[in-house]
Fold these 2 entries.
Entry 1:
Amino acid sequence: MATIGFIGLGNMGGPMAANLVRAGHAVRGYDLVAPLCDAAAAHGVTIVADAVAAAAGSEAVITMLPSGAAVRALYDDPAGILTAQNDCLMIDCSTIDVDTARYAHAAAERAGKQAIDAPVSGGVGGAVAARLTFMAGGTAQAFDRARPLFEVMGARVVHCGDAGAGQAAKICNNMILGISMIGVSEAFALADRLGLARQALFDVASTSSGQCWSLTSYCPVPGPVPESPANHGYAPGFAAALMLKDLLLSQAAAAQTGAETELGAHAARMYQAFADAGHGGEDFSAIFRMIASGHRG
Ligand code: NAD
């Protein structure tokens, strides 16, 4: 069993750290928010004074932070987490831009350490149930070292390629998700106007060529999929603000690389309007309500 530093004990990091403890690892945790530290301590995480203390003496350090800027700040600090012991494995599970992920890999390498970018999908429910999917970027050797930890916190682990490949996979996947959720929502909005029963559309499309995860697992209208957020007041789940964050990351990457992502750009604009209208805290499938109302926001 290993000693693991865990920085960022929020909605995702808190339960991920708890699952590492449950598997028998010693977890040294830190978050800027004291009540989150208290909650993690209740799950057996040893709370330490700061990020450097979390990294000190750890065989692996996991960061689960809100943004690329937060990750960069930790990797940039000359007296920071990279002062951990030499063979410490640096794992960043935050969803951030590919450039910052590669920057973190390079900084770790300069400090003589292996690194992995490993964003996740599966949401808070997946984090609690240890059912996350990890998409990892880094060398095969670093991936082999990280895999046993991912297997404790998740159900599926994919080595996507070299540094930054995990983040690339994440933003491409979530661009598909944002676009498909809007597509499914538009279909239900049109069905409503045509007088077609929602269940009838679901029964046809879920077994026809319109089938997709946004329809069959996460249906944006109440009824057909009992566990979808639509049946629970659109409580997240996966918040619209986080979908917007991921779509903006995909659009920044598209602009940088010259990729044509017309629908991704449009999806980003729609989620921006939805968030601007005060719905960022709702589940991302609640965009159905904006679409069905015929209003932008
Ligand atoms: P969150 O805001 O709940 O947690 C992030 C935590 O990081 C906060 O508690 C914050 O206090 C802490 N933090 C920020 N800077 C810090 C620092 N310098 N030192 C210590 N702690 C610091 O966010 P979350 O929902 O847990 O998401 C974390 C990451 O996972 C994000 O990048 C998000 O995009 C990604 N993600 C989230 C979900 C989801 O459904 N919530 C799903 C997949 C991926």
Note: Residues 7-13, 30-33, 36, 51, 64-66, 70, 74, 94-95, 120-121, 123-124, 238, 242, 245 surround nicotinamide-adenine-dinucleotide (CB under 6 Å).
Entry 2:
Amino acid sequence: MASVTSLTDLVSKQLTSALSATRPETSADPLLRRSDRADFQANGILALAKKAKANPRDLATEVVSHITTGDVIKDVEVSGPGFLNITIADRAVLENLAARYADGTGRLGVPLAENPGITVIDYAQPNVAKEMHVGHLRSAVIGDALRGMLDFTGEKTIGRHHIGDWGTQFGMLIQYLMEHPGELAPPSEVDGDQAMSNLNRIYKASRAVFDADEAFKERARKRVVALQSGDKETLELWQQFVDESKVYFNSVFDKLDMEIRDDEIVGESAYNEGMPETARLLEEMGVAERSEGALVVFFDDIRGKDDKPVPLIVQKADGGFGYAASDLTAIRNRVFDLHADTLLYVVDVRQSLHFKMVFETARRAGWLNDDVTAHHIGFGTVLGADGKPFKTREGETVRLKDLLDEAVQRAAEVVREKAKDLTEEEIQERAAQVGIGAVKYADLSTSPTRDYKFDLDQMVSLNGDTSVYLQYAYARIRSILRKAGDVRPAAHPELELHEAERALGLHLDAFGDTVFEAAAEYAPHKLTAYLYQLASLYTTFYDKCPVLKAESPEQVENRLFLCDLTARTLTKGMSLLGIRTPERL
Ligand code: ARG
């Protein structure tokens, strides 16, 4: 199905040619945006006037003389210091929307990117044998939303769940398991909760022995060496920990209504084999140097206390590799084997320094450059009601699972209150969609870098900028469409638009442009803001314009059509963010 050019694009093009017809020697962007005064306002003439040393109002008048009003632009006026106020013909708005509506591909007429690239997104990366916490929630939710938006633009995305599945703590765990066989039930026999409680128990027990018993400590240390040298029996036990953890991770991702592909779970350990090569390459190129036995990279602008340079440690003096080496090796894999041109890392902002050093090292090595770039999407902290990092009353980190369960429970209260005619099963199903949606939306609607307060009452509120508000808007439209019975939605471009219809229509037209912008800036909050505004504009439209009781049959069909397109746009936008829109609430 043919894709639809947005009205913004159409008008922009007309303005650009009018600008260059006016001053062929100077190029300028018309800087078009939606406006309250007219449909669009163009502010670009001010900059052009400056460059061309002309009076902006005179120049604007000249530009207007080069614009042909007609099918699309109904009217254009000079205003203020040299702005253009542009009004679109009603027919053009409706025809544009009708074309979107007719797109059978589910893309609402939004074209695919002309030159899509390959983006590897590193997100949802919990740690083996450890509980997941709110930080892992943010990475999963933001990463999944970025992926949804990028996929929609036509970008090819590859997920990488860089789970923490390697490190010295495994020596302790494996040694303990060897000495206490049978403590870890096979993954096939446990559910997520049992898996995590097994792991917790073993973690605590092995820690206690480790701290109390010098001989065990020594055996655990030797076990690390055995693990690193690939000893078969040791690796098998390590794999058991990983598999048991995956049962738990998957149960949480399930609860989060998020699909995590097993082949995209590629943890730190996957890069073990490549690490010596990474070190060798960096040393040969002179990017890394030996310092006190370790292989390190220095940076002029990264210094610690006493102004001493803080290096990135590629290889420790004892020959061991750590977090940096695995990330550097992962970059080589993602760039050279997966052919990515963009690498995204959705990781806590507190790891910024690590990524700054890793990316700079990779750039010096030539693995990253102007065409192959890496970006750390650093997210802020989830705070409790007291404005401090979220903790339980006992001062422990809040378990992600408990948090999600509580959100679903609160949502169940809201759903039960609203819909009296639902069965208990239906309530539970909706509650999951509302509760998880609420958690995701609250996370996505603030810019990733900012901290936010985890406030369930606010998150499941029916009023304000929440997913529940959007889900209700959607469900209300679906109910109107059901009530319409045999009357089908249909566009009638010959009709005159009410002001509230125009505002809604122009906003609907901007969906594709918004997703592209939000995807390019890695800013899911731009899409949530768009959707919130869409629901608000719809509410105004619904208040001002009777739908089923409109004055003529054409008017009824046309308004049903606006309703339906709004519903489709809402559900599409929400789905890109990983949020469901139930048919009834
Ligand atoms: N597992 C790490 C953590 O829980 C996050 C991993 C981030 N990804 C990466 N490539 N370093 O903090």
Note: The radius of gyration is 28 Å.
